[in-house]
Amino acid sequence: MKKFLLIIALFVLQNSFGQQNTTTYYFIRHAEKADNSKNPVLSEIGIQRAKMWNNLFSEIDFD
Question: Which of 18, 49, 54, 63 has its CA 20 to 30 A from that of 31?
Answer without folding.
Answer: 63
